[in-house]
Amino acid sequence: MKFYHSSKWIQVGFIAAMAAMIAPQVFAQDAGARIGAVNVDKVFNESNIAKQSQAKIEKDFSKRQNDIRDAAGKIKAAAEKLERDAPVMNETERVRRQRELAEQDRELQRKQREFTEDLNQRNFEDRAKIAEKANIALKQVAEQKKLDIIIQDPPYANPKVDVTDEIIRVLNSLK
């Protein structure tokens, strides 16, 4: 599953790189071509929809995160108590408590993995929704400014061609 998502980003990166290499040749033929540039991270971090999404994710996942943190604290306290009490315990009691701690630790690790997977999945889904709306905003800005191409995250872009703030403004106005 992760390979599929990774390969998707590799494909997008490859296409962007090819577009960046081909673009100068294309624009050399048409001196009237207009270019824009957008900082995708800024759109995903500063737009209202992204901020609302992040706040909702934090709200939805905070209880589970706190439960995991509390469980980790209890396991740590139990491990410290076992370490202190081990010299005065009989062998069977010490082994039993060590096994209980190991089982609790495995359960905690399982819960942490599930939490991380769920959080990553939710982030991915929300970013996809934001990307859909951002593409609509991007097209609107391109049409308003009569741009022929908008390049995402170029290594360098003159501030004159940066349309990130306009895209965020349009994205914030979309419902």
Which helices and strands appear, and what pairs or packs with what?
Layout: H1 2-29, E1 35-38, H2 40-46, H3 48-85, H4 91-144, E2 149-152, H5 164-173
Parallel strand pairs: 1-2
Helix pairs in contact: 2-3, 2-5, 3-4, 4-5
Structural account:
The structure is a single chain. The protein is mostly helical and 175 residues long. 78% of the residues lie in helices and 5% in strands. The chain has helices spanning 2-29, 40-46, 48-85, 91-144, 164-173, and strands spanning 35-38, 149-152. A two-stranded parallel ribbon has the order 1-2. The mean pLDDT is 86.
Sequence stretches where pLDDT stays below 50 over 5 or more residues: none
**String of helices and strands:** HEHHHEH
Mind summarizing the main beta sheet? 2 strands, parallel
Q: How many alpha or pi helices?
A: 5
Based on secondary structure, the structural category is mainly alpha
β-strand number = 2
Beta-strand content estimate: under 5%
Outline? rod-shaped
State Rg: 26 Å
- Multimer state: single chain
Strand order of the main beta sheet, please? 1-2
The N- to C-terminal Cα distance equals: 31 Å
Give average pLDDT, whole number.
86
- Helix content, binned percent: over 70%
Describe the structure using short key phrases.
single chain, 175 residues, mainly alpha, two-stranded parallel sheet, 2 strands, 78% helix
How would you concisely characterize the structure shown here?
It is built from 5 helices and 2 strands. With 175 residues, it is mainly alpha-helical. A two-stranded parallel sheet has the order 1-2.
